[in-house]
Amino acid sequence: MNQPSSRFSIQSSSPSSWRPDSWRGFEALQQPEYPDQAALERVLCEISKLPPLVTSWEIVKLRALLADAARGACFVLQGGDCAERFVDCTSARITNTLKVLLQMSLVLVVGAQRPVIRLGRFAGQYAKPRSAAAETHGGITLPSYRGDIINRPEFTAEARTADPELLLRGYERAALALNFMRALIKGGFADLHHPEYFDLDWVRHSPLADDYHRMAATISESLRFMENVLGIRAGESDRIDFFTSHEALVLGYEQAQTRRVPRRPGYFNLSTHFPWIGLRTNDPEGAHVEYVRGIENPIGIKVGPGATRECVAGWLDKLDPGRNPGRLTLIHRFGVSRIAEELPRLIEIVRGEGGRVLWICDPMHGNTQTTASGVKTRRFEDIQSEVEQAFDIHRAMGQQLGGVHVELTGENVTECVGGARGQSEEDLAQAYESEVDPRLNYEQALELAFLIARKMKRTNGG
Q: How far apart are CA 48 and CA 330, in angstroms?
């Protein structure tokens, strides 16, 4: 399962005019201001000498799989925390994140009738862009919290001061998380013969639990049947079942893990398999696009309302001049009320520029609301509607939606309203943990997977 097409061969993306630090000659938005530049350079130098977090052959494999997804042969599930916290680097939290992604992907395999690529927002998603550089409380103004890799959420001058040592802690936390994930997967945690390994105890009474267990039992029985017929055991190959992704926001950190590798052309960002650029930093003439244009990793670009033809042409010409499937992914995030107007226009622009991109729908970021009491939340019904509209629009325009991008957690949080249990705004105070954006909890994430699977069956004529 998830074998890349044999037709794929990587072409170097590193132009001769590019260097890992060439982004420094461009305007770099959303960068933290460090009071001690010498300390920052010492930390970045140390990170540049540490072992890579991922390998170039994993990156090349993912790029091949994403090329297949762009052709409609695979479907991408990209999910995880809005912004990881150092305190959550525990065995229980990591296991629960893998469990929810495994369960969702199992449901989507049935709906998509094709392999699902699991792309986690983890092991590096420690930084977040902010709409304002500072915030004021009680007449005191301090820098905004930008994620655990930059500063801390407590509203004190010390906590909100950008600390370069946190970059090193972010690298270490990512390494610890990846090490544990790989051990789990290699040890059989993700074995489809034993889906009970990735059940979450606290949701055994979920309205969808019985449906999920029936589906898992059917898949396990089918595997055993095929193995008995063919005389082989499925899934014995030693492979990476999960790939990592994070927003390439703090460019000094990304540069520190960018390097050449033996017997492969070009440079690789070895801090993650799939770096993406967010909506606030996606200017084709900006530092973030300049940085990612020279690395061999597959690249994602978040696209929102009002994207112009000039922007799209700039992304394609700088990041994918050869128009190679698997190189560039457009992650569209319009909101439930704007996708019908914005997405068809974007598709036409990309076609007009000859783009051969992978399309992923992010139904989260365009649907954030603030309650009357000042709490950020998202409505499940809006998230579901944007995804379903995305499927319909892509199909009506003669192509397929290639994946979904969801902020979620395996924990029993109350951050988004709606879903099968009818979680209300009054319920948000019960277990609201996120320091930045609200996430779907396990039940809501699994329900969304079932609804997407149902939509895909209908779209495919099943």
A: 29
- Among 63-77, 154-168, 222-236, 368-382, name the one with the lowest average pLDDT: 222-236
- SS3 labels along 45-69: HHHHHCCCCCCHHHHHHHHHHHHHH
The pTM of this model reads: 0.90
3 found inside a domain: no
Q: What are phi and psi of 47, to 5 degrees?
A: -60, -35
Q: Which domain holds residue 305?
A: 22-459
240 alpha carbon, distance to own chain's centre: 16
**106 located within any domain:** yes
Asked if residue 411 lies in contact with residue 441, where contact means CB atoms within 8 angstroms, the answer is yes
Q: How many domains does the chain have?
A: 1
| 222 is a domain residue | yes
Q: Could you report the per-residue pLDDT of 114-126, keeping only the tens digit for each? A: 889 999 999 999 9
Residue 12: the pLDDT is 58
The CATH number of the domain where 81 resides is what?
Answer: 3.20.20.70
Look up tokens 């509209």; give the residue: 389
Residue-level pLDDT at 457: 83
pLDDT digits (tens, 9 = 90+) for 195-243: 555 555 545 556 666 766 666 666 665 555 555 555 545 544 334 478 9
Domain membership of residue 377 (yes or no) is yes
Task: Give tens-digit pLDDT for 264-308.
Answer: 999 999 999 999 999 999 999 999 999 999 999 999 999 999 999
